[in-house]
Structures are given as C-alpha cells and as structure tokens.
Amino acid sequence: MQGLREALGLACLLCVLAACSPFSSEPYTTSTEPAALMALVRPGWQAAGPESMILRTLRGADASAPAETERRSLQPVLIAPLSTTRLLLIVAGTPADAGGSRETGSSTPASLDAYWFGKRGNRWYRIGEHEDFTRTGANGLPGELRTTALDARRKALVIENGSCRLGRCARWLNLFAIGIADMQPLLPNGEPVQLGAETDSPGERCRAMLRMRPGSHGRMALDEFSPRAGCHAITGRWYLESRNDAPDRLTINLSGTRVTARRVVVEPDEEEVDRRIEEAIARGGECCAPPPPVREEYLATVNTVNSQIVYRYADGHYEALSGSFPLPAL
C-alpha cells in the first residue's frame, strides 16, 4: 500500500511539474485554420481594416541612415504541412494606408513572412519565424505559392508569378528551401528565374504572325511591330531532379514562338512609277510626276522556341549550368 501511495504521489508531482513547464503558458491553438494560426502570429489580427496591419521598420545597408517605417496589410496565403507535427504558414504583406486599404502599383511586390508551428498533443504552438524573407510579385500580391519535395527529406517553397513592363509580360519562378526555422534561397543570388514571356496586348498582325508556320516570312508596318515589346509567346515547364537522396538539377523546358524582324526600306516599284507618269500626262502635266515616297517596314520571320535551361545544385543552392532565356531580361 505504501508503495502504491508513493507511486501515486510521484505521478501527481510529475503532473504538477508538467503543468508548470514553460509550454503550459505558451499561446496555442487546436485549429489549423488561417485565422487561428494568425492569432498566434499577430494577436488581434483581422482579415480587413486597421487590425490587418503591421508597422515594420526597414534599415538599409547604411546603418547611419535613418530607418524607414512602412505599413503593411497582412494576409495568410499558404498553410503547408511539413510533417505530422510541423506546419508552415506563409503570410503576405501588402503596402496599405492607415485604414488598411492596399496602396499598390504594377511594380509593387508583396513581402513574405514564414512561421513554423509544432504540435504537442492536440495543440499547435508557434516555434519559429523568418519575417520578410523575400519580396516578390506585382500589385502587392505574391502570386502562386505551394511546396514541393526538394529531396527525400526536405521540402521547398515554390513561388510563381508574373509582371508586365514596357509592352512585355514575363513569368517568374523562385525557390526557397524550408529549414527548421528559416527560408534558404535556392536560385542564384536569391533572384527569380524567367519561366515565360509574351507580348502585352499584341496587335492583330502580331497575333497573325504567331499563328504562322515556323520559318514563314511576312511584312509588318512600322506601327505593327515594336523592337522593345517584340512579338512572342513563350512558356516554360520546370522540374527538380534528385540523386542519391540529395538535390541534383533544376530543368526548365521552354517552348513557343518568337517573331524576329528587321527594318527595311521599300523602294517604289516600276509599275507604280509608270502609273504616276501616265496620270500626270493625262492631266496635262509634264513628265515626270514626283515619285512615290520611300517608305520603311519590317521584314519579319517566325521562329520556333524549343530550348532548355539547366541549373546544378551545389553548396546549398542551384547554379547555372547550361542554356539561357531567348529574350533580353525584362
């Protein structure tokens, strides 16, 4: 009986010690819904209005320069299970006014924050964070986010988005290795790589040229082709490869159509000159009438795009191995 009482006493002591452990006082949630997780990240957060915002201090490379404060509206954009006991939350921040309304333009990226949650029993606790790990996207929106397997043990965050500038639209890819409590850039210099491109609001003649057979030629008036915007439609598909349970290569396969053009001078043909002479004589004029004006146009060629870009994994990130995007950088 005495032994039983001692055992019960020890069990009670362990329960008391567990109740007094640091974890017992931590905020937690039993739900993995976005609002429940956001409440652990930003107590009092609401999906809209001033309660959605955060004031963030920015410091540049010059430590002596005054810091800047920005106001951002926060929204959960991805909840991704990492295991049965770990969860990742990605939160996007968009520039906003004092009322929580977005203040963005086509060149305004979203900031991304990452938060990790660990499960103990049926409770989820916040266990890590990496705030403002990148800025990406346009109009204050980050684009499409998801996770994918990086190798047999790790996952990566995939970010795909697009932007338009100077008559051209581009599609971009960025990758981050998901660490224990940090996001590690996987692409060269942490910068996105281009996945595709198309002409923004192409004219009727450009669309017609893109439908023509590769190798075809055609003429385009000066107002039908822009050397800056071009005339193209290129898409990319990518995939990751691993070897010996470790990351190996990132491959991007590009396909589509690109119209190249050169500006040429079009001399008036002889029939046109003869017709003008005859008209001048018929009106009682003297030979010869002024020749038709010299004009310029583009001589265009339809080209197939079928190429590959390969990156090789080394020292924790991917490095360019072969290939390049067939258009100048946007």
Automatic annotation (TrEMBL):
The keyword Signal applies. Residues 1-25 form the signal peptide. Keywords: Signal. This is Lipoprotein. It comes from Uliginosibacterium paludis.
